[in-house]
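Quick start: read one record
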Amino acid sequence: MAEEIFDVVNGCDEVVHQETRKNVHRLGLKHRAVHIMVFNHKGHCFLQKRSMTKDTFPGTWDSSSSGHVDTGEHYDQCAIRELREELGLVVHEAPEALFKVEACEDTGQEFVWVYQLRSEGPFILHPEEIEEGSWFEPEVVTKWMLDKPQEFARALVYLWPFILAHPRSFSKQT
């Protein structure tokens, strides 16, 4: 299988060239990703535990679905693709875009668009990507992150306060 190719971007999130996934991560080049938070009708969020075979943050808890934007792909297209690939959730339009964060060390030099949607599942978890998944009350996740941040992917720890503070976040609804 050919190695993934990513668009490398500058500080304004403009494509400057393409590079392999391995080199993008090894060299700390800026690139693009999405994180999708799935909330159920109770306001609980679905988190995935990353497979131990992942090259970054194996075995840690992460967003409901997340992934790199492929070369030539738009953020919205990536969100639709990642939901299908990781959770088996087929959507025909992009989930609600909440906010975008700048590439930084905490995101692994990724510009990240964060999306949300409401779904009750059940999901079909991709076994090469996800070890397990579960629903959590946002308050439980917040306390868990404060007590044991090492159990979470670094980007989710960084994004979590922004997700909770966002006025349209499903976590705010009952």
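The beta strands are 5-9, 15-20, 31-39, 45-50, 61-62, 65-68, 96-101, 110-118, 130-136.
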